[in-house]
Amino acid sequence: MLKRVGILAFGSYISPGRVSLELIAQVRGHDYSKILESLGVLEKSCALPNEDTITLATESTRQVCVQLDALDINKKNIGAIYVASESHPYAVKPTSVTVGAALDLDEKLMAADIEFACKGGTAALQICMGLVGCKMVPIAMAVGADVAQASQGDILEYTAGAGSASFAIASQDFPLCAIIEKTISVTSDTPDFWRREGQRYPVHTGRFTAQPSYFYHTLEAGKFLLEECGLTPKDINYIVFHQPNGNFPLKAASMLGFKKSQVLTGLLSPKIGNTYSASSLLGLIAVLESASPTELILLVSYGSGSGSDAFLFSVTDQIKKTRQYGKSISYYLSHTQKILVDTEKNL
Amino acid sequence: MLAKSSVSSWRLYKERYLLQGGKCSKCKRLFYPKVHLCLCGCREILKINFSGKGILKSYTQVMSPSWEFKSQGAVFVGLIELIEGILIIGQLSDTTGQITIGTKVMAVLRKIYTMGKEDIINYGLVFIPDI
Amino acid sequence: MTKIKNNNIKNKIAILGVGSTQYGELWHYGIGDLIAQAQIKALDDSGVNLKEIDNIYVANMCGEIFSGQAHLGALASNILGLSVPAARIEAACASGGVAIMSGIQAILSGMSQVVMVTGVEKMTDVDPAYAATALMGAGLFDYEHFTGATFPALFGLITRLYTEKYKITREQLAQISVKNHANGVKNPLAHIRKEITVQDVLRATVIASPLTLLDCAPISDGASTVILSSYDFARKKNWDGFYIASCASATDTLALAQRESLLEFKATQKASALAYSQARITPKDIDIAEVHDAFSTSEIISRHDLGFCAPGAQALNIKRPVINSTGGLKSRGHPVGATGVGQLVDIVNQLRGTAGQCQIPGVKVGLTHNMGGAGVTVVVNIIRGI
Hints:
The complex is a heterotrimer.
Chain A: E1 5-14, E2 17-20, H1 21-28, H2 32-39, E3 43-46, H3 53-70, E4 78-84, H4 95-102, E5 110-114, H5 120-133, E6 139-147, E7 162-171, E8 178-187, E9 193-194, E10 203-204, H6 210-229, E11 238-241, H7 248-256, H8 260-264, H9 269-272, H10 279-288, E12 296-300, E13 307-315, H11 319-322, H12 329-334, E14 337-338
Parallel strand pairs in A: 2-14, 4-5, 4-6, 11-12
Antiparallel strand pairs in A: 1-7, 1-8, 2-3, 6-7, 8-13, 9-10, 12-13
Helix pairs in contact in A: 3-4, 6-7
Chain B: H1 6-10, H2 13-18, E1 20-24, E2 30-31, E3 45-49, E4 53-62, E5 75-82, E6 87-92, E7 104-113, E8 122-129
Antiparallel strand pairs in B: 1-2, 1-3, 4-5, 4-7, 5-6, 7-8
Chain C: E1 13-20, H1 31-46, E2 55-59, H2 63-67, H3 72-79, E3 86-89, H4 95-108, E4 114-121, H5 128-135, H6 141-144, H7 151-166, H8 170-184, H9 198-203, E5 206-208, E6 211-212, E7 222-230, H10 231-234, E8 242-251, H11 266-279, E9 288-290, H12 296-305, E10 322-323, H13 328-332, H14 336-352, E11 365-372, E12 377-385
Parallel strand pairs in C: 2-3, 2-4, 9-10, 9-11
Antiparallel strand pairs in C: 1-7, 1-8, 4-7, 5-6, 8-12, 11-12
Helix pairs in contact in C: 1-3, 4-14, 8-12
């Protein structure tokens, strides 16, 4: 029987650059009103030229360390770190080690990089739960970070964003702010979106990415988790989905029987676009920053290829203290720089 | 110099990622980077990781960059007084062209340079406005 | 620290001959060619027999980086068909001054009688950005270059602090370059011979704000040679009596941020104080000076570090000594390793009365100030005649 585990500390980072979708439509010669209608996104986050997945993952994990420090917990207790991304800077040389070195984590550290398209971060969460639950390490760090890629002129260009979310996972030996009550996954071999080795930009199969891909897995996982927990949508306070655009999460919520009000707190994509591996996790952090003790959060991620991880979180009293520390999502939403041209530079 | 290997970068990773310097165990003088011998003659120099927080004392916009920074356009460099009381020179970022002496700054990890698609990526701390 | 016992005529360092090549973008000449030209010029000027040279120093910062050629001391010896002891001396932009000091030490030790000191730099074979990286070796490379700083950037940081503290305007700062250019026009060996105005300086391309292209010494090729000897040797020759009365040097931290103050260069203060004391003179006795103006700010700061005036706006208006009469680094050019020796060549010509259109009449006591990095190494020489 696994010991109860959960979130000890969390941290986020959203790149400050913002590109308006209206500008992209102008440059590409597309009809902005149709784009807005189909995507439900106004602005997307954009990495600055000197940022990449390693720097983003470091900064969100740094905010976790700020919380740990405030809770008087030595970061040398972090015994493992897993960074998930679709945009690791190296094909061979893990992002995790640089994050560990940049934050002066202990050298006796388990580490590896994870990839499962946009749900790599939640897969990392599950791995950390296992390590912590069987007492292999006291604290394990799960990070989802991406500087999302999209080829020029493709619809994905409108939403490919840049962000990172980090979680310190621990057992109840530590003052957890949210318990992970249950997690399940749904996995299948589905060709909706992929990127071959050596290729710069991913490829996707248009309308196939909706019903048989995103919606099938998300709904299956969501329903399965609710059944396993003996719960219905009205028992849940917040639902957070993977957010490829502003519309899919609203549609998935409705199809699962949730109300719009249950989705909105964790819905960030209209303001920041799709941060890929960080997407659902940043939504989770937005919820943690306003949820009350005893409230329940359902998170269903989605990663192309495909799969969904679903989690049930119960918020504890500790949340009120822990969330006072570190930079909040609202900080990142209010400290932005308008990007007027494509500033992608080769560093 | 221009064929500097990843090894010489690796050797400096604590100085570059953690702003690690030295503190004389005898007279408490601070150094970045660390020294082998303090000015007081003491050889016992303790390691200290500076916080990266400070105040901007001077700056310059480098329009004629050096080789490794050539592809980046203008680079902003600042003279920063860290809260611990010492001065360092550091790259400034996220300034959106507006820089004021006296601004509070803090260090974050960013890419510094890489010499081509096969080379190691050099990361280090740059200073952004602390708002 | 160099201590020359003064007032003892036997310890004077005689200057037997001097010569400089053209400074500029010398596409047709490699580093060996430049050494040869300067050495031959000085030899002819000196009337010394080639075989009498018993030691060679070559001042150079970037030979291996820009030309692949190290071992320049041996090369210089080889060029003259000699097989004497020879060494390359490097102290960034103060290589020339330190090589002169090395020559003096060789003579005073008694190990050498006649020393040929050549400074050379061949900078134009490489991309200016490549040169900019190499020149950051003058500071604490791993920490200062890594920030994206260039050598002009370090002076940009200093300039902003200095002009803010002393309330000096951009226009006032520009006067330094205008003056140096006006002098350089009269110097046939200068790299840049073009009059400029204050507006030209302000409108020029920004290199590292607030410094523009016209605040900064150019990247140049060139070489200069001086032949030094003991007094005993000189008095048997047709020597015109000019000698180095003192030579002093000091160093400071490589990292600019580790200085006590960024508004002065303590190495200049220390080296010049020693030089004045050893020569038994004060700054007031200097008639003419070569002051290291890699940037307009470095000339202003050096004027008060050398004791010619107080810091601040007053430093802009000194009448005496005459400073950088042949154009300074700004206009004469700055082949890094050559400059420290070239400064001595130009002062000797002034004292002799052979400075052509640049001549300042009646000068008797000269000073050279050569600086490596941002005040990291400084060498000061005081030159006079018997």
